[in-house]
Design goal:
The chain has 264 residues and is α+β, with helices and mostly antiparallel strands. Helices cover 42% and strands 22% of the residues.
């Protein structure tokens, strides 16, 4: 095959690129998700948010490969993970940023085999809520459903029961959650705006994971999520480098894709 023939056969659309990467995606995925499904879900997200189709294709593929490695579906249906477009001032490109969702972290925890049960809850001002640390830690939360209006969000907490016995919990005030949000490069868009409570609960889960025996999947998920949090948006533009997307097939594909137009 000549060089001109090879160029002519390169996939020009995002759908074509995803189809050409199915083998690489399949190698990353756990058994409960197929490459066909991951491709369909990814293209659905592009149709729902056309700005994703304008992003650098390699960054889009990197986010999909990250989702595949963790076995999480992007999009708001399951709340596992979210794909957000942003402007990277360093590269001059529009790129895709992956944000792990609250339900995504829960799913990873339940699959790890280390945790018997895990949950995160939101606390409102009209609820009965008491926390005590020390030699006999205690957490009591009685939601005031009878009042109809539970009041304003005041805290979030995460609780885990370990397979070998024992319970761990961690609590954050809304003020602490807002500090985390202010550090996030996606703090003014995406799930921080549309699903604040879930993002707050995810923040509690992520902090709790630091005290738990967790799997490599969860460690990778927390690393990806913390990399996201370390960025900032200034005047609507991202000012730092995105999450590393150096996954085998994606890096090899980047040079091939960077001269092509994105046509979702």
């Amino acid at each position: 095959m000549t060089e001109s023939t090879a160029i002519a056969t390169k996939p020009k659309t995002l759908q074509g690129v995803l189809e050409s990467m199915k083998t690489e995606i399949a190698r990353c995925l756990p058994k409960h998700i197929t490459a066909d499904r991951m491709t369909r879900v990814a293209l659905t997200e592009v149709r729902k948010n056309p700005k994703l189709g304008l992003c650098d294709q390699a960054s889009f593929l990197g986010a999909i490969m990250q989702c595949s490695q963790m076995g999480l579906e992007p999009g708001g249906v399951l709340g596992h993970a979210y794909l957000l477009p942003f402007d990277n001032n360093k590269t001059g490109k529009k790129e895709v940023q992956l944000i792990i969702g609250y339900k995504g972290l829960l799913d990873l925890a339940r699959r790890s085999g280390q945790i018997k049960s895990m949950e995160a809850r939101a606390v409102y001002s009209n609820d009965k809520f008491r926390v005590a640390y020390g030699l006999n830690p205690e957490l009591i939360h009685e939601p005031n459903f009878a009042a109809g209006d539970r009041g304003a969000l005041t805290h979030v907490y995460a609780v885990a029961q370990l397979v070998g016995g024992g319970t761990q919990f961690d609590v954050l005030s809304v003020a602490e959650v807002q500090k985390v949000r202010q550090q996030s490069k996606a703090g003014n868009s995406g799930p921080w705006v549309t699903h604040f409570e879930e993002m707050a609960k995810k923040t509690a889960l992520r902090r709790l994971f630091k005290y738990l025996p967790v799997s490599l999947e969860i460690q990778n998920a927390v690393m990806v999520d913390e990399t996201t949090v370390r960025g900032q948006i200034i005047d609507g533009e991202y000012t730092e480098s995105p999450v590393d997307i150096s996954f085998g097939g994606v890096d090899a594909l980047h040079e091939r894709l960077q001269t092509e137009e994105v046509a979702a």
